[in-house]
Design goal:
By secondary structure, the protein is of the alpha+beta class. It is about 20% helix and about 45% strand. β17 and β18 form a beta hairpin.
Length: about 350
């Protein structure tokens, strides 16, 4: 009897176990519905948004002047050399005055004679010995002779045409030089300048006064567009644009090729990358996080440049932009922000 009761008890226990339900594990969709879709967010803040064009351009001094020989002869002296500061009309190179090609001595003698003659004529006029017409003729002859002598003096005493410093010295002491031969270049680098060629598909966005930047090695120059040509250069099929850069103590070499950047547009605004923007029926949207929900917000875009988009309206600095997980949510989906 005892054995029969034991068997009945075991059977009842097995029947009870068979009726107990076994729970199936939750899938990802069920977990996300209960806990929220995991997403990452980013705060929004205003920052600089710039649209710019880049070009290559030569950097030059604001003034540059090449000086050429006006005579056949030999270099006698070089008074200033590379990197020396010179002023306008300061003598840099001398050529002997007895060079036959210069006719310096002949012109000098003619000037001295006309000077003596004019001084004598002035005295005679004051004494009433000659007419005013005779005096005027003597004065004219003297002034012509003086002008010729001054010109000849500049030919043998070669001057700097501008204020600046010697950028290049081609001449050497004792060197035979010829008419039209370059001798030295003077550069004024109080400011720098560059001239670039802009294609017609970009010229409409370039205006006088726009900010410009030049980069050469580690040196950065800042400046502005100073001139924009109004006619296409048929040789280069482009428009010529001149830029002036400030010199804030930078020792940049003139003649070097630099990267020139022209800022077409610059503002402080909220910027969103294109990969976070949803296109739907000619409208633009983004997902933001609000009270553990994904909220679809329509936005209005401004300018776009290199994948960055200026936001005109729709979201502000108080919003949290969903940057990861937006593909798995819908409007008002429960979300779980992960760090």
């Amino acid at each position: 009897m005892k054995k029969i009761l034991t068997i009945i008890g075991v059977g009842l226990l097995m029947m009870g176990c068979a009726k107990k339900e076994v729970k199936a594990p939750e899938n990802i969709e069920q977990i996300q519905k209960r806990e929220g879709v995991p997403v990452k967010v980013s705060t929004l803040e205003k920052r600089g948004f710039a649209e710019y064009y880049t070009f290559k351009g030569k950097i030059k001094g604001q003034e540059e002047s090449m000086v050429y020989s006006m005579i056949e002869g030999k270099v006698e002296k070089i008074l200033y050399d590379v990197n020396d500061v010179v002023t306008e009309d300061q003598v840099v190179i001398t050529v002997p005055t007895d060079v036959p090609a210069s006719k310096y001595n002949q012109v000098k003698e003619g000037f001295e004679l006309s000077e003596i003659t004019y001084e004598r004529m002035v005295n005679l006029y004051e004494e009433g010995a000659i007419s005013k017409q005779d005096l005027d003729q003597a004065k004219t002859s003297y002034e012509v002779s003086k002008s010729d002598f001054d010109s000849m003096t500049k030919i043998v005493n070669i001057e700097s045409p501008i204020n600046g410093k010697i950028g290049i010295m081609y001449a050497e002491v004792g060197q035979e030089i010829h008419q039209g031969q370059p001798l030295f270049k003077v550069i004024n680098t109080k400011k720098y300048k560059s001239r670039i060629s802009v294609p017609e598909n970009k010229i409409s966005k370039i205006e006088v006064g726009q900010k410009a930047t030049a980069i050469w090695n580690d040196i950065v120059l800042t400046g502005k567009v100073s001139k924009v040509s109004q006619s296409l250069d048929e040789i280069t099929s482009s428009f010529i644009v001149d830029i002036v850069f400030n010199n804030n103590g930078q020792n940049i070499k003139t003649g070097v090729s630099a990267e020139i950047r022209l800022d077409i547009y610059d503002s402080e605004t909220i910027i969103v990358d294109s990969k976070y923007i949803i296109d739907s029926k000619d409208k633009k949207y983004v997902y933001v996080a609000e009270d553990n929900r994904a909220i679809l917000k329509e936005i209005t875009l401004g300018r776009s440049f290199n994948g960055a988009n200026e936001i005109k309206s729709g979201i502000s600095e108080v919003d949290l932009l969903i940057t990861e997980g937006s593909k798995y949510v819908e409007n008002e989906s429960l979300i779980k922000i992960i760090r």
